[in-house]
């Protein structure tokens, strides 16, 4: 059986929306987009590179997959993250996406996330990682399908926005398996589901 790992950039008050740029995700009138890049440093880059160095496939919700397709799928910048993302098998979960042809090595999982991802997890293959895709993560978390979390906890509060653990979910105990603090005050915490 495959395992599923999640990497999420999160504020102290639990917001995961609009990390990268002002126009990334303005749903619900969110006006704080672009809060994350100023906290990137060498330590964070090294930790993220270690995560991407592990073999595995990627798993996306539709919105994040479309955003990553635009940002990474057409990039030719020589960035090792670009090469990794383009080469990886990418599963995109969607009820509405007509196909996954816009980004190489993408496979559409049509239907309800819990059922399609649960079936994928049961199949033999490499482990799965999710970067972003908060709605997908919430659904899979509530169903008990997430095995590990890497939370990049940023030293700011936003006061509004989509939160990672919002909505109904069962009590879930996690074990801290490691942590690193960056020079900009971001705590990178690694958790495993008990």
Automatic annotation (TrEMBL):
GO biological process assignments: riboflavin biosynthetic process
Entry protein name: Deaminase
Lineage of origin: Bacteria, Bacillati, Actinomycetota, Actinomycetes, Micromonosporales
A single MF term (Gene Ontology): 5-amino-6-(5-phosphoribosylamino)uracil reductase activity
Ranges where the Bacterial bifunctional deaminase-reductase C-terminal domain occurs: 3-187
Pfam families: RibD_C
């Amino acid at each position: 059986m495959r395992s599923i790992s999640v990497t999420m950039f999160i504020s102290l008050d639990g917001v995961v929306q609009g990390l990268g740029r002002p126009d990334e995700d303005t749903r619900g009138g969110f006006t704080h987009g672009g809060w994350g890049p100023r906290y990137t440093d060498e330590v964070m880059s090294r930790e993220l590179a270690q995560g991407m160095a592990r073999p595995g496939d990627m798993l996306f919700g539709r919105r994040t997959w479309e955003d990553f397709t635009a940002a990474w799928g057409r990039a030719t910048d020589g960035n090792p993250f670009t090469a990794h993302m383009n080469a990886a098998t990418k599963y995109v979960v969607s009820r509405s996406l007509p196909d996954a042809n816009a980004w190489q090595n993408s496979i559409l999982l049509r239907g309800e996330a819990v059922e399609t991802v649960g079936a994928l997890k049961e199949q033999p293959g490499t482990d799965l990682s999710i970067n972003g895709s908060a709605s997908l993560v919430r659904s899979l978390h509530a169903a008990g399908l997430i095995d590990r979390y890497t939370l990049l906890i940023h030293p700011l509060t936003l006061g509004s926005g989509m939160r990672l653990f919002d909505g109904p979910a069962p009590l879930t105990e996690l074990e801290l398996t490691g942590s690193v603090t960056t020079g900009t005050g971001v705590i990178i915490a690694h958790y495993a589901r008990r």
